[in-house]
Amino acid sequence: MKKEEEIMVSICCLAYNHERFIADAIEGFLMQEVNFKYEVLLHDDASEDRTADIIRSYEQKYPDLIKPIYQTVNQCSKGKNVFSYNCQRAKGKYFAICDGDDYWTDPKKLQIQFDCLENNPDVVCCYHGDYVLNKNGLTKESRIPPEFQRSYTSYEMMTAQVHISTLTVFYRNHDILKDYPLECTFIRNDDTFLFSILGQYGSGMYLPNIEPAVYRVHEGGIWSMKRRTEQKAMSMNTWFWIAEYYARIGNTKIEDQFRMRYIIGSMSSVPPIRLIKIFARISIRYTVSPFQNFKKKRLGRNTRLNNKSDFDMPFKVMH
User: Fold this and answer.
1) pTM
2) What kind of fold does domain 3-216 have according to CATH?
3) Can you point out the beta strands (E) in the chain?
4) Which residues are CB-contacts of 67 (< 8 A; sequence separation ≥ 6)?
5) 308: buried, middle or exposed (CB in 10 Å: 19+, 13-18, 0-12)?
6) CA-CA distance, 210 to 270, in Å (whole number)?
7) CA angle 82, 84, 85 (to 5 degrees)
8) Residue 256 confidence (pLDDT)
9) How far apart are CA 3 and CA 87, in angstroms?
10) Are 298 and 248 contacting, i.e. CB atoms less than 8 angstroms apart?
11) What's the count of helices (H) and strands (E) in the chain, helices before strands?
12) What is the CA 49 to chain-centroid distance, rounded?
């Protein structure tokens, strides 16, 4: 394949029961004005509505651009990391994300972000603002507070001290993403894990000159409709497994950051009467399980975990 024909950007779109929204997402991909070739990797996780049919109609019109996977059995419910399906088949030098219930509004978005990374080799990702669309309509205020509408250092990204809207991010497609770290198997907050991994390769740059994307809040949203206690439990689980990832690769400085965040968050989420038992369980788990078992399996990124029950969180958030 000649260089001018190579795919430079892979767009990742995950969909599940998004029949009311998926067309908006795809139209946002199709309207992009670029001087390079890109692909749209759609993954439908066995939707129970007409999402797959709508995707097929676009696939028929744009067979060289729209590249779907149609699952017949829901993979998320089986504990699979559905994000990895698109990572493994992406051909682009760069990666962009937008789920099937969100959409882009700026036709120059990809070109601006592409130029940014081409001209800034120390930057691993770039991103911009977004608005919220809910049952009351479009809220034309950025979802990111003003103080966080900025660029981030590599360290800030690695330690998850960032506020980046996933549907706006554009990043380098490093090899680690094709062979996704096994710890992500147990994480629902894929974006937090992703940004931390990317931080190992560079900094993040905020681009204020791109029109805001639209983040949709609806009843089927994986994150937006969760209760605060559920969101906190998901975040704590993410911190736990990011710590395990950094322990496996030998970065104890970043590991300790997430260990402490996890422990403090857990302590603040349970009744005081349980703290003594919790401290005891933490001590046991740190020296025996799951860390002892997990260390036996630290053989590389191709390792597969066979018994998920061995790797549960030490304790859960109390509702």
Assistant:
1) 0.82
2) Spore Coat Polysaccharide Biosynthesis Protein SpsA; Chain A (3.90.550)
3) 7-15, 37-44, 66-70, 94-97, 123-127, 130-134, 137-139, 170-172, 203-206, 213-216
4) 39, 40, 41, 42, 59, 89
5) exposed
6) 42
7) 75
8) 95
9) 22
10) yes
11) 10, 10
12) 24
If one counts every other C-beta atom within 10 angstroms of the C-beta of residue 311, the result is 20
- Two tokens at 307? 């018994």
Pairing type for strands 203-206 and 37-44 reads unpaired
- Report pLDDT for 296: 40
Q: How many CA atoms lie within 13 A of 10 on its CB side?
A: 24
pLDDT < 70: residue spans in the chain? 1-4, 220-227, 229, 267-319
Q: Give every CB contact of residue 236 below 8 A, 6+ residues apart in sequence.
A: 262, 265, 266, 269, 313, 317
Q: Token digits for 198?
A: 């990317």
- Pair of tokens at residue 101: 């219930």
Continuous segment of H or E residues that includes residue 32:
none
The pLDDT score that the predictor gives to residue 79 is 78
